[in-house]
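SUBJECT: A protein chain and its fold
Encoding: whole-number codes for local backbone shapes
RECORD BEGINS BELOW THIS LINE
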Amino acid sequence: MKSKPDLALASSSKKKSRASGFTPKVSSSGDPATVLANLNTKVFPLTPVILPEGDSSASIQLIQGDLLQAMSQLFHLGERMGDHASLKDDLAELTFQLREEKDNVLAKEMEIKALKLKVRNKDEAGALAAAENVSLREQLEQREEDVCDLICAAETFDAEKTTAVSGAIVVARRELMRECLNHQTDSWDLEDSWDLPAPSFEGELVIPSKTEAEKTPEPTAGDPSTDP
């Protein structure tokens, strides 16, 4: 198990290697002091490593192991960065597709709004046509009532005309009959039309007038003409 200083060294080596891209090389025949100086100068300039007194080869090997582990992590991180770039491209492609889909959806929404407006206009036109139809139907019913009134008036006029003509004929015939009875005229249309003789009271009892009745004496009891 690594100690905290070892982890700090490994973390520092990761940061420096990521920043500079430098891959340290340890000389196989180098002096440990030279190697440590190179590490402090090129790898850990901000956090120099101080080797403990004693066997320095073990510390250097430990540092080399940490460096190798850091290099491995950097390598895998580079692969991940490559995958991240690929994912970024995929994300850009998906974003572009999403934008296209959004534009299509907006176009569809505009089309739907236009269709709704057209349907609403048709509904309004239908309502207006229905109102006009109702108005025309009412006018037609009014015209039918007027026609019925005219027909009734015509029938009434015909009946009244017939009644008036018949009444006039009756009055005229009555006047003509009265004139004929009073011997004021010799014209009698019914004689030619219906083969009816002219009215006459010949052979009938004559009703005396009021003057003649007053001149006729009343019979007495001794008058033999009044005896049975």
Summary: The helical segments are 4-20, 32-43, 56-181, 189-193, 210-215.
